[in-house]
Amino acid sequence: MSSAPRAAAFRTTSFSGTGNELSNLIVGGDGNDTLDGGGATSDLYFREDTLIGGDGDDLYRLDVEMDYNTIVTEGLDQGIETVEYRGQTYGANLDMADNVEKAVFIGTGDVQIIGNIPDNMVTSGAGNDTLNGGDGNDTLIGGEGDNWYVINSADDVMIELKDGELHSRRLLSGARCRRPRARLR
Ligand SMILES: [Ca+2]
Ligand SMILES: [Ca+2]
Ligand SMILES: [Ca+2]
Ligand SMILES: [Ca+2]
Question: What pTM was computed for the model?
Fold first, then answer.
């Protein structure tokens, strides 16, 4: 990584950093930054970006294919982070990085999104998705499609569209599940 292109911001103003087709290191400052490894590449699994948000409520923008190897690094109590997944997928597993609170999938296809220790808000797209907030009290929003929700806390909340027969909700009860409290909106 020593020769990789780098970008960094060290001020408290918001910073927007977008990389290129090479492997980039992008470091945010104390503000609410947007970090995007960017850049199309012919080898989808070659690029290895490292994105470090620092303090502030940072937004990470990842492509489900081209950012397969991207490393998102957030410290504990360094803001409320959102990771935004884009692109087309045929069943990608999207594991949220540590200390990132929110995930949004706005691409096409089916995904499985897996949260982390803190309370997460997980929003998937139009596909048939699986949403799993992991530990904590999570809010899971499946959007359109035939979605599965992993409910393993009494305070997990799932929000499913109710307009249309194709929109369904299901519970996969975890070992710690007592009385799942699901909310239909
Ligand atoms: Ca920041
Ligand atoms: Ca941050
Ligand atoms: Ca969906
Ligand atoms: Ca969680």
Answer: 0.84
Closest ligand relative to 133 C-alpha: 4
The percent helix, strand, coil of the chain (3-state, each to 5) is 0, 35, 65
Residue 121, amino acid: M
Distance CA 123, CA 175 (A): 24
CA of 126 to the centre of ligand 3 (A): 4
Average pLDDT of the residues in 134-158: 90
Distance CA 128, CA 54 (A): 34
Nearest-ligand number for the alpha carbon of 147:
3
In whole angstroms, give the CA distance from residue 51 to residue 44: 18
How far does the centroid of ligand 4 lie from the alpha carbon of residue 16, in Å? Answer: 27
Of 86-100, 119-133, 157-171, the range with the lowest mean pLDDT is 157-171
Mean of the per-residue pLDDT values of the chain: 83
